[in-house]
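Our collaborator T.R. sent over the components below with a one-line note: 'Predict the complex.' Nothing else. No constraints on interfaces, no templates requested, no preferences about which chain binds where. So this is a plain run: every listed entity goes in together, and whatever single assembly comes back becomes the starting point for the next discussion.
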Amino acid sequence: MLYIIGLGLGDDKDITLKGLEAVKKCERVYIEAYTSLLSFGLSSNGLSTLEDLYGKPLIVADREMVEESVDDMLYEAREFGVAFLVVGDPFGATTHTDLVVRAKKLGVEVKVIHNASVVNAIGVCGLQLYRYGEIVSIPFFTETWRPDSFYEKICTNRLHGLHTLCLLDIRVKEPSIESLCRGKKCYEPPKFMTIQNAIEQLLEVEQMRGESAYSEEATCVGFARLGSEDQVVVAGSMRELVNVEFGSPLHCLVIVGKTHPVEEEMLDFYTIRPKSL
Amino acid sequence: MLYIIGLGLGDDKDITLKGLEAVKKCERVYIEAYTSLLSFGLSSNGLSTLEDLYGKPLIVADREMVEESVDDMLYEAREFGVAFLVVGDPFGATTHTDLVVRAKKLGVEVKVIHNASVVNAIGVCGLQLYRYGEIVSIPFFTETWRPDSFYEKICTNRLHGLHTLCLLDIRVKEPSIESLCRGKKCYEPPKFMTIQNAIEQLLEVEQMRGESAYSEEATCVGFARLGSEDQVVVAGSMRELVNVEFGSPLHCLVIVGKTHPVEEEMLDFYTIRPKSL
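Returned assembly:
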């Protein structure tokens, strides 16, 4: 049996009782280091906190492992209980659909234990989840690669008065260009897009495309470390948020659509300069 | 301090360790009976299971209480720890934004403990969460009240190739018409919309509006008791799903947009007649 278990967003205590019971009865426990592990405060130190909680060692499944030797894990899961731990929800912002498909093809039974993910936890800012349109991803621009397919999606959402959740790029364990050339495995340090970076790219694209999907006056909500004890949520215009110090990753950004009065009241609590002043 | 704690979707074991710790240290614990409590398998029997787990009595906060005497709860939360338990995530399909706004206005500190909700758990069917458009609600039609504002939203989503999550109506503790007339408080029995009912209404509206937003051949995914041990997920056309016995509530429905190959592979596992046959 393969258990795919969501760890939630904050720390080791965000696992569910059901998730913890499953981990405890599994013979082998993998933890995905692939996408957002660092956001979970999991330094090597944090890993041992988890190992203490679970009472067993963790195998860090990094990107290479997931891409290259995931079948070994699935063969194990045919013989005994294997847990695969995922930050957030197993099918949250990053999906593990492919893993499930491979498991099912190998005849491995799969059980999913859900948890919170960014996609629902953003509700904390007061914007109603049923007033969001399509989610967009903002990738790191490079000198030569500046994809802006998010722009049209934001246009469409705003046309319909909908909010847009922007997921910001994460680069973990990317092979360095130098290492690719030399055929050795060396990695770039992990890189997380900040809200500031995202807004700069958004405004650059608006200037290029000029369809007035948004401007630097557009109201947004910036989230850092959503779901953690030290989460930061700030509402303001793009121009204002670009100057806010949100601190360490992960960051995400919501571009606000048309709001209802209850939404506005709630946003007020997070606004840099509340209307009530 | 007011803790608003998500219980997740399945049963008593879906609370997080953090949530359980908070409940244990609160002096008073309310549980919302307002929207989807019955979906949680919480007969009076289930309630005592929770009370055993928490080691303290629960106060059921029904609709009346939430609407009429919520301030009493908030005054308590100024003096000592109060937990307010919510099925799913506090800001999931149903929101508790208003409660937070009132709390903050009364100077009550609020702490939210997230959990899974329908909005992310639907990821289990393999359709990517970032390929969903606006969520729609399908209300029970009556003889005289047949609101169809969901139709245009589905149109827009399908035009952009996006999936649509349809949340199906729940009627709990509605005053009966007879009781309204007599000035006494009597309630209709709780009523949960089934997938069959939803599809019938959807097709009725399509026939009226005739803009070909979908047809009875449209691929959908039906979910019953999502996140529970006995959840049912079936993919098929509207025509097929209308004949599937999904069993007890809650139900929800996804109208599938344009799919990618990995999404299709995964949907296949849930399809009434898999393509591979």
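Summary for T.R.: Chain B touches chain A through 56 residues (CB under 8 Å).
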